[in-house]
Amino acid sequence: MNDARSEIPVSTRPAAPSATPAVRPVRRGATGAPEADTSARASAASERASDIAARASDIAALAARATVAHALELVDVTDDRTVADMIELVSIPAPTFHELDRARRVRDRFVESGLPRAEIDAAGNVVARMAGAAADLRPVIVAAHLDTVFEAGVDLVVREDAGRLCAPGIADNARGLAALLALGRALLASGVRPRRPILLVATTGEEGRGDLRGVKHLFQERSPLREAAAFIALDGTGARRIVHRAVGSRRLRIDIDGVGGHSWGDRGLANPAHAVGRAIANLAALIEPDARDVALSVGRLGGGTSVNAVPEQAWLELDIRAESGASLDRIEARARAAVHGAVAAEIAARPMEPDALELRVTVIGDRPTGETPATNALVRTACAATTYFGAAPDLIAASTDANVPIALGIPAIAIGAGGESGRTHTTAEWYSNQGGVTGVQRALLVLLAVAGIAD
Ligand SMILES: [Zn+2]
Q1: What is the 3-state secondary structure of 226-274?
Q2: CB atoms within 10 A of CB 249
Q3: What pLDDT does residue 418 have?
Q4: How many angstroms separate the CA atoms of 420 and 418, rounded?
Q5: Interval between CA 235 and ligand 1 midpoint (Å)
Q6: CA atoms within 13 Å, Cβ hemisphere of 232
Q7: Helix 325-348 × helix 272-286 angle, to 10°
Q8: Could you give the C-alpha distances from 275 to 63, 227, 282, 338, 348, in angstroms and in order?
Q9: What single DSSP character describes residue 177?
Q10: How much is the average pLDDT of 123-131?
């Protein structure tokens, strides 16, 4: 494929990490404040500042082009439409694995805005394609996830309270979806001609047990999208965050089966619920109080049918997270040993019933780790676009749709879609449109800087 004429080169592989990266990830101290740079890194920090400034001038030149300026203006003048889209989309339930109704609405909105070929793929993703002036160039993908953490039946009526919109999922990720639609509208109506093809994708399965189902389908083996030039996820709010490091996760379901029986008549039976309790105690003991780069949490547990019965079955679900795959593997191995030890201890405590418990460990989630280096053109461009709007870029690690392309070596980031929010993942979630326009405009500039402009 001919990539020689792209305006801002974006490799399909992360650049090799350099000894003095031009942009260093901001590391947070325990208070959440950035840690002070050591003197050894002072020169890297000043390089970072000059590098971002240089790129900001590229961004300023891009923003000054007539069609791009028009697109930016359209984002502003259609802001009411964007907020109306958020309100409409958030009211359509979209629990993970049940995103279809919301997906259909997003597809219809793409079609209405002039993307007639928008379609829903086999994984439930909505995919809308915009032609590039150079059709043979690798595409840029911009995505926002459809699903929410809320179950069917949760009240999704939007309330207004002191200038805030309140509804479960209003920020995460109705905001990202509305921004995705706004980008499509502005690109089409402004007459801007991107050089690279652009794919606008609303994905399924980003939350909870979804295990990044939608984005994993996009990048499945032999998918031509594995050659994508870049991937930008719009997730949540804000106009400073740039997620370039992928926090991975390994999720385990632990099922413990027993014979079960009467709590008095069958006293002395090995008890699956007791084994789950022992397992949780062992797992909790694995958590090192000062470990900041790994997390381990039992998120759900259950089992049994009656208070006066020894359960036939009990279970728990465990979430392990880390920035490195090696850490994930290490903690997973320890967690498995801890659970086996718990079951063995419960059996040993009931010598009359050897082998009365059966343990099954199932991997129910596996999100890969990785990093788009801060020196990569995509990250630097996102930093520059952030600086262009007068904000300081905040380079962070998180778990998002970008995990999958990052792990495949495709330059990928996740950014907020503007505005402010709080109480995310609770029924008290709220959104304020303060800085909403800026967030969408930042995304537009990053997208166009990477896609290039034809004339
Ligand atoms: Zn989200």
Answers
A1: HHCCEEEEECCCCCCEEEEEECEEEEEEEEEEECCEECCCCCCCCCHHH
A2: 20
A3: 97
A4: 7
A5: 5
A6: 35
A7: 140
A8: 61, 47, 10, 11, 11
A9: H
A10: 97
Q: Which domains does the chain have, with CATH numbers?
A: 45-247+369-451 (3.40.630.10), 248-367 (3.30.70.360)
Q: How far is the CA of 204 from the centre of ligand 1 (A)?
A: 11
The pLDDT-based confidence of 275 (bands split at 50, 70, 90) is very high
Closest by Cα among 390, 438, 380 to 47 = 380
CA of residue 236 to ligand 1 center, whole Å: 6
For the entire predicted model, the pTM comes to: 0.82
The CA-atom distances, in angstroms, between 106 and each of 80, 85, 125, 128, 184 are: 17, 9, 10, 10, 11
Nearest to 380 by CA among 63, 53, 41: 53
Q: Can you read off the two tokens belonging to residue 35? A: 């840690």
What's the one-letter identity of residue 156?
A: L
Protein residues near ligand 1, an ion, with CB under 5 A:
172-173, 235
Task: Give residue 119 CA to ligand 1 midpoint distance, Å.
Answer: 22
**Residues 154, 160, 162, 163: is their CA dihedral positive or negative?**
positive
Instruction: State how far the alpha carbon of 441 is from the alpha carbons of 75, 387, 451, in Å.
Output: 7, 12, 15
